[in-house]
Write a structure and sequence with these properties.
With 242 residues, this protein is of the alpha+beta class. It has 7 helices and 7 strands, in the order H-H-H-H-H-E-E-E-E-H-E-E-E-H. Strands 1, 2, 3, 4, 5, 6 and 7 form a 7-stranded antiparallel sheet that branches. The two termini are 25 Å apart.
């Protein structure tokens, strides 16, 4: 029941979170062991040579390589006394395609690195009725997090209480104007840019303060899903504009 249409009380029941005291330290430790740390998985990027070779692992490119062989044989059978224009053109197309593919993958890798850099190193969490500063990688679903002006949001979370809260969501939506956030209902299945009762990992508090209930961490956050798509080699996603 993690949809934005659920009430905060319903989510708190689902996560077994006390909205006054937060999770217990023991429960938080169990969830951390179960779900893993609140961070985006990082693996060593493939080498430039490997990325270049991978561009030829495509049926259309293999077809073009076959055309190069056929054209070269035809040119040789005809006496090889002229410039093999067809061969040169097809080779140029294949190489251009590989170069563009490597460049796009490089941009995707840079984007993933930038997304990881958006995560704040620390946050204020309420556990056992006490607010304390912890490393954000230890956040778990069901945690109560205290946000203030200038704070980076470290996980996707529903707004429990808010005081003049505005959040900059440019990394997710491309919207340069901060978005007002408040507790309440949002239509089922609403796009990210319209979820005004939710804050997202990778964004930042531009104004106000709030108490929020964590609903997703790590790769299960919206920005984590984007990072996963980029790591898989998909093209850079279009910003989810308002």
């Amino acid at each position: 029941m993690t949809d934005t249409a659920a009430t905060v009380a319903e989510l708190a029941d689902e996560y077994a979170t006390d909205l006054d005291r937060g999770l217990s330290s023991i429960d938080a430790a169990r969830r951390l062991e179960r779900d893993g740390p609140n961070e985006l998985a990082e693996s060593s990027p493939p080498s430039l040579a490997r990325r270049f070779v991978a561009q030829f692992d495509d049926p259309l490119v293999l077809l073009l390589l076959g055309a190069i062989v056929v054209s070269a044989l035809a040119w040789w059978v005809d006496g090889a006394d002229s410039t093999p224009v067809e061969v040169i053109v097809i080779v140029a197309i294949v190489l251009a395609n590989a170069i563009v593919g490597v460049w796009q993958e490089g941009r995707a890798l840079d984007a993933v690195a930038a997304l990881r850099a958006l995560s704040a190193p620390h946050c204020i969490v309420r556990r056992d009725g006490v607010e304390s500063r912890i490393t954000t990688r230890f956040l778990v679903v069901g945690d109560l997090v205290v946000l203030g002006e200038g704070d980076a949001v470290s996980a996707d979370a529903r707004v429990v209480e808010a005081w003049s809260l505005e959040v900059s969501e440019a990394p997710l939506t491309g919207e340069s104007i901060p978005v007002a956030k408040a507790p309440g209902f949002v239509e089922v299945g609403a796009p990210v840019a319209e979820r005004t009762n939710t804050v997202f990992s990778g964004t930042a508090v531009a104004r106000g303060r709030a108490l929020v209930l964590v609903t997703a961490t790590g790769e299960r956050t919206e920005i984590g899903r984007i990072a996963t798509l980029l790591s898989a080699g998909d093209s850079e996603p279009t910003p989810l504009r308002r």
